[in-house]
Specification:
The complex is a heterodimer of chains A (110) and B (121). Chain A is mostly beta strands and 110 residues long. Chain A contains no helices and nine strands. At the A-B interface, strand 3, strand 7 and strand 8 of A face strand 4, strand 5 and strand 10 of B.
């Protein structure tokens, strides 16, 4: 059972927009920055979003992040088949003194 | 550009110790801004953070509660690397293990290539 809660799967058509939610509590999302990661099969996770809404160099602006209270959201616009992957949210938990992740969301581009 | 190169065995017998090393290039394990982490991934448990080491005038470690009694993460300043030791492993410890650099605010920007570790019973 993950500390952060994500939907197991989402799907949308190519070119469309999708959002992935991540729910936590005041000890994690509510008082710490959220990051989002993309994991393609057989590869290491890749940082997409950090500090709630910032993109590392090289990440296209089709990817966006937001946070409100104890929840965060990853948005992906202009979906491409190459976006099919598992997506994870992560943050620091001040009560556990640990990095915590969501259970992951599998994105299918139909 | 920071790169992390992992090394260590891919097969460990149950009850023995899992040992992995992560060699750093492009940054220092003694950095005053980064932290150095170990994470594992399995189909059944998803991503699981195991622990970290970092230097802020002295060395610190944080470990996940789930492995706290069995884990040690050590820096090696002479080789600019850090290591993971996980004792008394069981088949449930079978996973792909990653080292990663946290650039700040728990954002893991740089990752090692991953090592599949299988625990045989």
């Amino acid at each position: 059972q993950s500390v952060l809660t994500q939907p197991p799967s989402v799907s949308a058509a190519p070119g469309q927009k999708v959002t992935i939610s991540c729910s936590g509590s005041s000890s994690n999302i509510g008082n710490n920055y959220v990051s989002w990661y993309q994991q393609l099969p057989g590869t290491a996770p890749k940082l997409l979003i950090y500090d709630n809404n910032k993109r590392p160099s090289g990440i296209p602006d089709r990817f966006s992040g937001s946070k409100s209270g104890t929840s965060a959201t990853l948005g992906i616009t202009g979906l491409q088949t190459g976006d099919e992957a598992d997506y994870y949210c992560g943050t620091w938990d001040s009560s556990l003194n640990a990095v915590v992740f969501g259970g992951g969301t599998k994105l299918t581009v139909l | 550009q920071v790169q992390l190169q992992q090394s260590g065995p891919g097969l460990v017998k149950a009850s023995q110790t899992l040992s992995l090393t992560c060699a750093i290039s492009g940054d220092s394990v003694s950095s005053n801004s980064a932290t150095w982490n170990w994470i594992r991934h399995s189909p059944s448990r998803g991503l699981e953070w195991l622990g970290r080491t970092y230097y802020r005038s002295k060395w610190y470690n944080d470990y996940a509660v789930s492995v706290k009694s069995r884990i040690t993460i050590n820096p090696d300043t002479s080789k600019n690397q850090f290591s993971l030791q996980l004792n008394s492993v069981t088949p449930e410890d079978t996973a792909v293990y990653y080292c990663a650099r946290d650039q700040g605010s728990s954002s893991l920007l740089n990752w090692g290539q991953g090592t599949l570790v299988t625990v045989s019973s």
